[in-house]
Design goal:
5-stranded antiparallel sheet; two-stranded antiparallel ribbon; alpha+beta; 7 helices; 194 residues
């Protein structure tokens, strides 16, 4: 895993009720294995509906949530090579987020372009990015007597530093200009959430 997050880290960042851990037997039914299986069953997936980032996989197995990529390719969808099936994790404000149970790669499932683009090398990177985003919003405070222009400059620099920290762990969240993380962090830098 790219990030060393544990369940307590996630619970501290988003609240215990917003950390979704799968039972092992359910994760196995979805086809997860290795580090991805461990992350789902021991650490969990963070979620933040307050910031329009609802994520998690149902605790009861639903075979309809294992999406076959071959049938979608026949309808014009493109997927990275080797991706044969995906499981939805939840939604950004615009696009769905899915995971390849075979590799653990997290993808953005973009209806507008009929493509799935890699946005995280693994679930720990996804969790770290979400926790970083939400943590910045919830800890943000204007400096006393700071004029708006100085605040905008400071916030933009802080968000740029945050993005660089994330990219050192995993370059994928901001690698594709169509990644919704790019827009979310641009909005964060612009003061939309603070």
């Amino acid at each position: 895993m790219r990030s060393g997050l544990n369940r307590d880290d996630l619970a501290t960042a988003v609240g215990e009720d917003n950390v979704h851990v799968l039972p092992r037997h359910t994760a196995l039914q979805y086809g997860f294995g290795g580090d991805t299986l461990r992350f789902l069953t021991e650490v969990g997936i963070p979620s933040s509906e307050e910031w329009e980032l609802p994520f998690g996989i149902p605790e009861d197995f639903d075979p309809d949530l294992v999406w076959d990529c071959a049938s979608r390719r026949e309808r014009g969808w493109t997927f990275p090579e080797g991706v044969t099936r995906i499981v939805p994790l939840g939604d950004f404000p615009i696009n769905a987020v899915v995971v390849d149970p075979d590799s653990g790669v997290v993808l953005q499932y973009t209806d507008a372009f009929q493509t799935a683009i890699p946005i995280h090398q693994d679930l720990s990177s996804f969790a770290q990015t979400l926790v970083s985003f939400v943590g910045y919003i919830e800890s943000y405070a204007s400096a006393p007597a700071e004029d708006p222009e100085a605040e905008d400059t400071r916030r933009a620099a802080e968000v740029r530093d945050l993005m660089e920290t994330i990219t050192r762990v995993d370059p994928l969240p901001f690698a594709d200009p169509n990644s919704e993380w790019v827009e979310l962090f641009d909005n964060l830098a612009g003061g939309v959430y603070t």
